[in-house]
Design a protein that fits this description.
Elements lengths: L17 E5 L4 H12 L3 E6 L4 H7 L5 E6 L5 H12 L6 E4 L15 H28 L2 E5 L12 H21 L5 E7 L14 H10 L8 H12 L10 E4 L8
The structure holds nicotinamide-adenine-dinucleotide.
Amino acid sequence: MGSTDEGPTPDPSFAGETALITGTARGIGRACAVRFAERGATVVGGDRLDQSETAATCADLPGAFEPVAADVTDPAAVEALVERAADTGRVDAVVNVAGIVAREPLATHDGEPWERSVAVNLTAPFRIAREAAPHLRETGGAVVNVSSIYGQIGAAERAGYVSTKAGLEGLTRALAAELGEDGVRANAVAPGFIETPMTEPYAEDGAARERFRELAALGRLGEPSEVASVVTFLASDDASFVTGETVLVDGGRATVE
Ligand code: NAD
């Protein structure tokens, strides 16, 4: 079906539910917060940056947005974030979006970007899923992890990013296996090039943008909302028999010639 100019049809399918989402200050995380709030969810959003723009965007939506200042690499902050979500009475979805990419050529880097990538992209989602699991078991909820096409294909000077995103997809399958009998699903999305503050360095570089455009079968870059809509699908009952899966959201970048 094509799109219309009339905007989204009201869809209160998450009314009364709570989604814990990280990385909600900007980019894909903010788009996820908005999409869940559009569907009526209460979103508890954890980020280390100011979240006033996300709060302003969500203010007029059917759901609610509760910003929590949290560095996801801090175990105490993760505990407080999960508690805050549980204080709403239930946790239906956990969406791990917060992530970093660091350039680290093997010849010059000192290991710090690697350690940071592991802490943010892999250890934090594990810790959040572990802390939230008892609450998800009560609701038969869902985990959605935001990986990357670089979880599936290699990239030079990105050892930490490629390895942690591949690890995150492994973690997703492990969670699916361990939580499945309690009706909890775990899936991942693997975006291609999405226009966010993370990819802003390429905004100035016309040749790089053109190359990324050409690599995608659809011949364009992606929007954060196009990732968020797949995340909400995976968190919803529409995906009730989908678990352990990683869905590429890359315009055909990784699979089509
Ligand atoms: P972004 O840099 O625009 O936003 C990331 C958000 O995560 C920021 O708000 C940031 O403050 C937050 N964050 C980072 N480290 C944190 C920490 N330690 N504690 C709390 N919050 C933290 O990035 P984005 O492009 O929106 O990317 C979001 C996710 O999508 C990341 O996991 C990224 O790897 C993944 N991804 C992005 C793209 C893309 O092209 N933009 C492609 C594939 C995957």
